[in-house]
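Progress narrative, Year 2. Work on Glutamate decarboxylase 1 from Tolypocladium ophioglossoides advanced from sequence curation to structure prediction during this period.
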Amino acid sequence: MTATTNTPNGHTTNGTNGLNGRLHRAGELGDLLSAVRQLIIPFVQAADDAALDRSTGNVPQDITGRSQNVLVDTHKPGELAARLKFILPEEGQGKDGLLEGIQKVLKYSVNTWDQGFLDKLYASNTPVGVGLGPGKSLLYAYFELGWCDFRPCTLHPQHQCEPPPSNWPPCHEVPLTYHKLHVYQVSPALTVIEKTTARALANRFGFTGPQAGGVTCQGGSSSNLTSLVVARNTLYPGSKTAGNSKHDFVVFTSAHGHYSVEKSAMICGLGDSNVWKVPVDESGSMRADKLRELVVHAKEQGKTPLYVNSTAGSTVRGSFDPFEEISSICKEFGMWLHIDASWGGPVVFSAQQRWKLKGSHLADSLTVNPHKMMNAPTTCSFLLGPDMRIFNKANSTTAGYLFHGNTDEDIWDLADLTLQCGRRGDSLKVALAWLYYGANGFERQIDHAFDMASHLYKLVQKTGNFVTLSSDLPPCLQVCFYHAPGGILSDDAAINTAKTQTIVEKLIHRGFMVDYAPGEWGSFLRVVVNVQTLPSTVEGLVQAIEEAARETT
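Result:
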């Protein structure tokens, strides 16, 4: 086949790179990343510049009276679709079309770098996570390479351009390659990093045996699903080949547990009706006495109690379950104990907070998501356990074309421990952040976040115009409360819900995004602070809520 162009790079012909027998991918990539950088850095900078505005509880306006809301340019779905006019063309639009598309995505996306984003159990990434971790798209690719394509280097002398910061590593120290982390042969460095990082995390939770460790999964839901599969295939080995068979398995989870438990039961063929919810106490923690009653009841019905999902940092209120008591019940009835520490697990780094994880070493498996409290880039989830040989035995299948046997006592082909094949090197996001901040740095960040939650709680209490869900400081980083002038809450749940929803909507135009959740007296406000939240931000938020509430009356 004869090439029809002398400049076959995708950005000049919208065609295949290398038609003339030569590759120009580095030049094309450098050109695109340089252009994308000019869009991304201002996006983050705008959030930094807006931090001072958040302390006022309001959003400034330009000279025309237009709101300068960095957090989000909000529209209804149909209107946004019309504004985006996002069309996938038959003919490529090249660099100009790409940059125009990225500009639109940034313009109409929530800027989670903004201090006002207090809506979900995550916030902006740490700069080190974005800058050096494995990227997810072209938007992240620039940060993967840093300045590698733009300066001289002993490894790549053909690279020329702007100088990097004085502390930037040589380009051969920055992750530049793409790997599928399924077998050691093709991802040796990332395999070692994942095993090292997972083992270090496992040790912190009390899994200290020689085979302790973990693996990364696609997210907390995937980690929880994997734990259920491992539990079933370990406690009832025949189910690995014969399925659930005659076993009428029952899974137990907190009434405040994550919905992924029901989805996992559906996927495993147990059915979500066999997920039994255990009542919680006033603080939102699972009641061990009620768990035992339900287990006994299940056995009386001829069912097989299989698995208990306990929680470290529940999604709504941030509650921690009594793991030691739950472990005793699991041992008594031969059940698997899993701890979903997706949200609250990182308190293990804090000397002030880790007491909340007392008994975590008794678990058979544990999920932790550094992309939440630790601000690692999404997704980054670990499933940890005391013995990785159990994970391997439960999940491995015969695939001689990929897994060629293991003569080492350690397991190095990590996909054989999971339900996946191709896997991302998500552990690198935590490993590099750990190198950058250190465990002590993580501790300081987490302690700061808890200080901010405490600060917000005390501000809310001080005004006298709110009713909090508990009389104590929040167990995690969520602060939950109703707006109630004079501390008097309406006994009409519908009225409370309507007020809460209206306040949430009005806050967006003041530069804040918070969430709400259903409660006994209607929906309440749920604010999630993070490791980068400033005291002035929560002070401005309380002011904004009070002003928004006055507008609703």
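Residues 1-8, 133-178, 399-404 have pLDDT under 50 and may be disordered. The first strand starts at residue 213 and ends at 217.
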